[in-house]
Amino acid sequence: MAAPIIRVGSTDKEVSKDLCQFVIDKATSSIKEKGIFTVGVSGGSLVKYLCNGLPSFTTDWTKWRIFFCDERHVSYDNSECTYSLYKTGLVDKVGMPPENIFPINPDLSVEDAAVDYEKKLRSVFPGTDIPRFDLLLLGMGPDGHTCSLFPGHQLLEEKTRIISPISDSPKPPPARVTMTYPIINNSSCAVFASCGEGKADIVQRVLEGNEDVLLPAARVRPTNGEVIWYLDKGAASKLKNI
Ligand SMILES: O=C1O[C@H](COP(=O)(O)O)[C@@H](O)[C@H](O)[C@H]1O
């Protein structure tokens, strides 16, 4: 398990540019190696970092398979729906085949939506017990949550399911579907993007504190892969060791 790699940009725009270049480089190498690029995306501020930058790159979008590290259990026309943000901000803009992005089905109960989503996910990784994503793109809230894994929540201890429903998310909306650590920590590469001084305290605690039991983002440590943090100056401002 390698130590996290930290990359600091001057502004959130620079972070977005560097992050998107990194994603494209990963896509290029995965497509060359295996003919496909499997990527998990998150909601929140990550949406704008990706949707502002990725559409201007050239890549074989037909080879991308996009899943959600977590998603809110809301209808597609709800402004909280992460899928719809990527559909209009990326998929439609670049002309990616719509079947290459895998939304959760909000018409099902949140429990059934999680089961249905796991089935869709497994269909892209045939013959594997725990799918191994080429890249997971993650955000972190000011409480240290990532995906829909919140401090103190029982889902932090999930060892069997790779996708889980959650009905009591402390951050609204309460019903969500999320990846869990067995699949997150089986990825080849997990990348966080955090910007702004409002994230400085939690970034310092996650990267330099000894709170990996408590803070969900600190538990993202792929067994056989790397973790990279893209930060702007504000988010990195309380780090002592860079
Ligand atoms: O609720 C969520 O929050 C996190 C962090 O969002 P951010 O806006 O603080 O970056 C996000 O990564 C996750 O996907 C989302 O559901």
Automatic annotation (TrEMBL):
InterPro entries: 6-phosphogluconolactonase_DevB, 6PGL, Glc/Gal-6P_isomerase, NagB/RpiA_transferase-like. Keywords: Hydrolase. It comes from Mytilus coruscus (Sea mussel). Belongs to the glucosamine/galactosamine-6-phosphate isomerase family. 6-phosphogluconolactonase subfamily. The keyword Hydrolase applies. GO terms for molecular function: 6-phosphogluconolactonase activity. This is 6-phosphogluconolactonase. Pfam families: Glucosamine_iso. Its EC number is 3.1.1.31. The keyword Hydrolase applies.
